[in-house]
Amino acid sequence: MVKLRLKRYGRKQRAVYRIVAIDVRSRREGRDLGKVGFYDPITNQTYLNVPAILYFLEKGAQPTETVQDIFKKAEILKEFLPKLNKI
């Protein structure tokens, strides 16, 4: 199973995260299948590659709760639901 989850980068007390598609059996810093975004909790900046996110969601990837909250703020899931209805 593939999940969309956060992968930690940065230094001590200054974490930044990449949003990646990764196998559930991999560890947090393990090899990812694809990078789909970036999240900096300190400055509250996000960058999301929407086509890549929609691709992995259509293939059955499940976002974690934290990533799902990031997607809701960016209204990504609103774009995903109509595409599923067309299929």
Can you tag this structure with a few keywords?
alpha+beta, S16 Ribosomal Protein, Chain: A, globular
Polypeptide structure, described:
This protein has 87 residues and is α+β, with helices and mostly antiparallel strands. It has one domain (1-83): S16 Ribosomal Protein, Chain: A (2-Layer Sandwich), CATH 3.30.1320.10. Helices cover 34% and strands 38% of the residues. It is built from 3 helices and 5 strands, in the order E-E-E-E-H-E-H-H. The chain has helices spanning 50-58, 65-74, 76-86, and strands at 2-11, 14-23, 34-40, 45-48, 62-63. The protein has a 5-stranded mixed beta sheet with strand order 4-3-2-1-5. A hairpin with a 4-residue loop joins strand 3 (34-40) and strand 4 (45-48). Helix 1 (50-58) crosses helix 3. The longest helix has 11 residues, at 76-86. It is globular. The two termini are 21 Å apart. This is Small ribosomal subunit protein bS16c. Belongs to the bacterial ribosomal protein bS16 family. One of its GO terms (biological process) is mitochondrial translation. Keywords: Chloroplast, Plastid, Ribonucleoprotein, Ribosomal protein.
